[in-house]
Structure formats: C-alpha cells, structure tokens
Amino acid sequence: MPDLATLLAQVFTGLVLGMIYVLLAIGLSLIFGLMTVVNFAHGALYMLGAYLGVFVLTHTKSFWVALIVAPLMVGALGLLMERFLIRRLYGRSPDDPLLLTFGLSLILVEGVKVLWGKIGLTLDPPRALAGAVDLGFMAFPTYRLFLIGVTVAVLIGLYFFLGRTNIGLIIRAGSRDPLMVRALGIDLGRVWLVVFGIGTALAGLAGILAGPMRGAYAEMGVTMVIESFVVIVVGGMGSLLGAVVAGLLIGQVVALTTLFMPKAAEIMVFVVMAVVLLVRPSGLFGEAGLAE
Amino acid sequence: MDRRSFLATTAAGAAALSFPAILRAQSKDPLRIGFPLPLTGPFGALAADQQRGATLAMEELNAQGGVLGRKVEVLFRDDQLKPAVGAQRTKELIENDKVQFIVGGLAAHVQMAINEQTKKSKVLFISVSQSDEISAKPDASPLTFHEALNPTITSRAVGSWIAQNLGKKWWIIYADYAWGKQNNMVLQEVLAKQGGTLLGSTPYPLGSAEFSAHLPKIQGAKPEVLVSMTPGADNIAFLKQVQSYGMKKNMRIAQPLHWLPQLKEGGPDLYADIFGGTSFYWELADSVPSAKKYVEVYQKKFNAPPGDYGAYAFSGVMEVARGCTLAKSVDSEAVADALRKSPTYDHYKGKQWWRTCDNKSFQDLWIVKGREPGKTKGEWGLAEIVTKIPANEELDRTCKEKGQA
C-alpha cells in the first residue's frame, strides 16, 4: 500500500491528466454534438497543430504567437475540409463522413512525413513555463498547471459562445431541428462551417499544447484520437459537460490503475467505457437518439 | 506491386544503372535480395535508415562488378509493422519476384512472421531486428541468421555497466511487448547478480505518449537509476515528462539502447547526460578503420551520418554477398554453410563473427552518453562514446539454453 503522500500525488496527477484528456477531446465532441459528424481526422489535425506550431515558432521565435497562429491555420484547413468535402455528405449515412475523414487523416499523416521527414520535431515549452513547481507533496511541471488554465478558459469560452450569443443559439437550434431552423430562413451551411472550423482549430490547439509534453511526430494523433473517443463516448457524444466529467474520470482511472496495477491501466479505460455504455447506452450525459 | 515498392525498385534500379560495372554484369540474371521493413508506422525513421544502409551495400557491390558477375538488386517492401503483412510481402518476394535471399525485419513479431515464410521456402534469411527469438528453438533453422544485437546481450552488457558505474538502486520502466519484456527480465537478473536493489518495475503499453501517471511513484521511491525501455516516439514523450517533473536532477537515466533519430528529434536539452547502449554510433569513425570508410561513403551519399539500424542492414546485405562469393553459388544452403565455415567478417565496425551453433552474430557494442547543449558536434554529434564493451559469447544465452545444442 502506497503512503498518503504518494496517493495524493497520484490523484493530483490524474486530475491534471484528466484535464488534458478534456482538452484533447473537446473539439471532437463539439463537431459530433452539433453536426453529428464523426471527425476521424481529429488526431491528424492535432498532429498538424503541433507541426504548424513548430513551424510558426521557428519563424517568429515566439511560443505565444505560435499558440494563436497554429490553431488558426488548422481551423482554416478545417473550413476548407467542410466547405469542399464534408458538406457534400450531409444527409447521407454517418459512415460516409467517417470514412472521408479517416482517409483525410491518412493523407495528412503521410503528407507531413513528405514535408517534414520521418523524424519528429522538437517543441519546447516557453521558458516561463519550463521546470517544476514544488507543491509540497511533489514537484509538478509548471507547464501542466498552465494547461489546466487553458482548458478552463476554452470551456468557459465555449459555454458563453454556445449559451449566450445569437450564433450559439442558432447552432444549438440547428443541432436539435435543422429543418425548422432552415424554415426560419437561416443558412445552416454557414453555421456548420463555423462549428467545423472551431472544432478543428481546437484540435490544432490541443496539438501545439501537447507538443512540449509529448513531442511532435507524425503518428502522435493515433493514440490521441482513441483516447478522445473514449472520453466523449463515456461522457455522452456531443455533451461538453459530459466530456469534462468523463475526462476527469478517465484521468483518475488511469492514475489509480497505474499506481496499483500498471499492466491493467490501458484495459481499465475500456472496461470503464464498457460499463458506462451498459448502464447508460448514450453515455453519462448523452442525449438518447443523437448517434442513431 | 504497390506504388511505394514500385518507386523503391525503380529508384534502386535507376541508381544501379549509373554504374558502368553493371553493364558488364548484366549478361546474367541479377542476384535478388528481398528486404521487408516497416517504412510506414512509428518505426518509419529507423526503417528509412535501414533502407539507406541496404541501398548503399547494393551500390558498393555493384560498383565492384556485382556478385559472381551478377548485378545485385535489393527489393524493399513495406511490412507496415504488421506480422501478417510482413509474411505476405515475404511470400510475394520469394514467389513472384524470385528473390534468392531475404534480409530485413525490424520489429520482433514481424521478423517471426518473415522467418516462417523463409523457412517454408528454404530461403536464407538474415534478420536485422534487435530481437532474436528466431535464433532459438523452435523458430531457429540452419538458414536463419541474426545480424543485430538482442535483448540478452544488450541488457547484460549495458545493465552490468549501469550497476557498476551509475548506481545499484533501480527503477525499470518498459514497453509491454516482446522486446521490452525480454530486456526487463534480463536487467532484473543482472541487477540481482550485481547485488543491487530493484525498487520497482513497471510496464506501459507500447505507443503511449503519456507517462505522467507513472512518475509520482518513481519519484517517491527515489531510485539512483531509472532504466527505460521506451522505444521510438515513446522515448521522447517519456524523457520530456521525466524532465518536466524535475526528476533528471535526482536520478541518473539510462537505457539499454539509444536511437539516433530520437536523439536528433529530442536534441541535447532532452538527451544530455542520458546513458544508453548502441551497436553503432557514427563517431566510431574516429577510432575504427572500417567505420571510417562506412561513415564517409554513407555521409557522402545521404548527407547525414548512418544510424545503427542502417548499419545492420548494410552488413546484412554484405554478408549475403560474401556468402555467395565464398560458396560460388546462390543456393541458400550452400551460402549458409559457407558463412558458418568462414564466420568472421568486418563490414563497418570491426570484427564480427557468426556463432555456428545458432547463426547468431557477435559484435562489439558501446555505451554512449548524450552531450550537453553547446557541446554537441554539428547537427548529429549528439552523443559521446563512454566505453566499448567487446564482443563476447558469454553475454548471450548459450546454444544449449536456446535449445540448439
């Protein structure tokens, strides 16, 4: 049995890890919740965010500029994807956009290897965030604490955008009853374009933020997209609150199983997912019928 | 034939055509060597190095007029790091492309699948994977050769050195698959033999980018040495996270293997003072004559120094050629017999030899250490050589232990 300090350190590590899962999953959740499009290219766009982050960083020498510009670049690519490819598939089976985005992810991964080579890139945290802070019970990386701040800011921003603005109102209405919204004379195509742009930009943001912790390499999105799917499936496809609760839950599951039974840490995540789906088939906070 | 392998073959062919010696050698059918390797997937950078090494061997041989008057062709096929694909590509190479020999394989499990095919078709296979279960029963065969190091040799050699030089209180973390598990087992034996203490040993799933959940426990245990087997991109994520938790200050970090592509990717900030074993590091050119020659030719052609995986591939192809020349034949059994009869060779890093009871290659290895920022030598001079561990059959399991007596 580990002592109390180790247990506390582990729970805290799991908490921060959970927030990172939320950050990774939020863009995927947004796009699915509002458009019912399963964006399989989420992981590849995350990877692209990290690579473009390095690209902007080497040209501007500023992490902060890169932190803003790289997600915007990924979001711009997302706009193009929606406008010219995904838009053609609305109204068809949900498998079609899934296959399309899966294909796009393969193109992006191999494309990045052609452009930047097979060896990954280095992305360091800005000097102000390098190193560790002494929390009393353990030394903890400053950068991970900063990530909590970013995640909370993103969540608050999304909450106000969706809940308190006119366009947010239209987006939510469009996800409930697209026909009625169209009948009111609103161009839903433009709304979905915006949603897809935001969702992909968030994937890019997660990518540049993950780079300093995990490195930037072409396959970095492969495991990340699985982690993100687990989080939004457990939380309920499309629910932001669900994504937060599920992210924190999975963070604790990983942290505590790693502490007591490291061999089972990976499988436990899927056990939790299976149990949640058995008890609540549409996830913890999901609306029944959304994914059907 | 898919697009990638088509490109690889035509590129190889075009390169070969630029040598006048080929024109003389073309009167006979070419000598064909199939080379399955994981060009796509997480080990892509290492596979690219393998491809460069094997291409270089092919060009060197053709520049000398080929083998037995025949032009040499190496046919690369992407095994996608999947055993089923590796088996299929190998089968196609043997049956459709009519290769006489197979060299290649990078991952332990894919190499097994390749070996099953070569055994079935009675084709000589020189594996360049860092894992060598194929040279033990029941997978072994008189036609299965193993050019690279293996977990037993690497971890016995590097592990003993770590215990004697860095500290005897260890924590081990390893990727939960064949190569990681074997190293973990051998390292624990070594540590016990050296009278050290194992504070803990944790597996993690290969391909993981998140290690934070492992770190508080390791921090709390206060090991003198953290021994890591986190291959490929995992290595970068692992070291970044260890560093960000401030652990590099409190413990030494060592790994049975260092990988040059990762050293390049992570840079000196990450790899400074991290110890690792290696079968080849290009700065050996300063002290080993055959390494000097190999590094010069490689550097000239590819504009970057060779890594260890490329060197294995180079040596593997060269050994096929040497065997053919000795046997005056391209028959797999004759070539295998010839290699066992004259087992000593030196293609790139000093003397190596085949142990004839299991066709395992014995070779020197080195301990290297990451250089600090500001002390690197050029773009690729990221590590310094600490010491050499000479080739020694006692570092491996005996043939009897491998069921090969």
Could you characterize what this model shows?
- Chain A has helices at residues 4-35, 42-60, 63-84, 95-116, 142-164, 166-176, 178-183, 188-214, 220-235, 240-260, 265-279, and strands at residues 132-134, 139-141.
- Chain A has 292 residues and is an all-alpha fold.
- Chain A has a two-stranded antiparallel sheet with strand order 1-2.
- The longest helix of chain A has 32 residues, at 4-35.
- The termini of chain A are far apart.
- By secondary structure, chain B is of the alpha/beta class.
- Chain B folds into 2 domains: 3-149 and 287-362, Rossmann fold, CATH 3.40.50; 152-278 and 365-395, Rossmann fold.
- Helices cover 43% and strands 19% of the residues of chain B.
- Chain B has 13 helices and 15 strands.
- Chain B has helices at residues 3-17, 20-25, 44-63, 83-95, 108-121, 151-165, 178-193, 215-221, 233-244, 260-271, 289-302, 308-327, 332-341, and strands at residues 31-37, 72-78, 101-104, 124-127, 144-146, 169-175, 197-204, 225-229, 252-255, 275-278, 344-345, 352-355, 360-362, 365-370, 383-389.
- In chain B, strands 7-6-8-9-10-14-15 form a 7-stranded mixed β-sheet.
- In chain B, helix 4 packs parallel to helix 5.
- The longest helix of chain B is centred in the first third of the chain and has 20 residues, at 44-63.
- Residues 19-26 of chain B have low confidence and may be disordered.
- Chain A binds chain B through residues 2-3, 5-6, 9-10, 13-14, 16-17, 20, 110, 113, 117-122, 124-125, 130-132, 138-141, 143-144, 210, 212-215, 217-220, 222-224, 254-255, 258-259, 262-263, 265-266, and chain B through 40-42, 44-45, 48, 176, 202-205, 207-210, 212-217, 219-220, 233, 236-237, 240-241, 244-247, 261, 264-267, 269-270.
Task: Explain briefly what this protein structure is.
Chain A is an all-alpha fold and 292 residues long.
How is this fold's topology laid out?
The complex is a heterodimer of chains A (292) and B (405).
Chain A: H1 4-35, H2 42-60, H3 63-84, H4 95-116, E1 132-134, E2 139-141, H5 142-164, H6 166-176, H7 178-183, H8 188-214, H9 220-235, H10 240-260, H11 265-279
Antiparallel strand pairs in A: 1-2
Chain B: H1 3-17, H2 20-25, E1 31-37, H3 44-63, E2 72-78, H4 83-95, E3 101-104, H5 108-121, E4 124-127, E5 144-146, H6 151-165, E6 169-175, H7 178-193, E7 197-204, H8 215-221, E8 225-229, H9 233-244, E9 252-255, H10 260-271, E10 275-278, H11 289-302, H12 308-327, H13 332-341, E11 344-345, E12 352-355, E13 360-362, E14 365-370, E15 383-389
Parallel strand pairs in B: 1-2, 1-3, 3-4, 4-5, 6-7, 6-8, 8-9, 9-10
Antiparallel strand pairs in B: 10-14, 11-12, 12-13, 14-15
